[in-house]
Amino acid sequence: MDQSVFQTLLAALNGFAVDNARYVYLVAVLVVAIVRQVMKMFSGWLERLSREQESVKREFDELRDYTLGELRAMNELRADIEERRFEKMQELRDRLTKIESKIN
Q: What span, in angstroms and rounded, lies between the C-alpha atoms of 81 and 2?
């Protein structure tokens, strides 16, 4: 709260013979000071939430990119395995064909 708020509050407490206009002014100053503090508090919370949201978004993007990279690598590996399997099957068929031709 502002220094003037405390001074006004002390002045009001020192003498009870303060007129209504001064009470109204004091209440208004106190309300303004409280509202300022609440606004600062909410502003701080919003800033922290915004920073945290950006951090989470960055982490999510990194994780997504990593996961997509891993999926691409797995698909490439799967394609390589299928290709090798097909080549082996061809080799085995060729050998089987040679063996059958020798037998017949």
A: 74
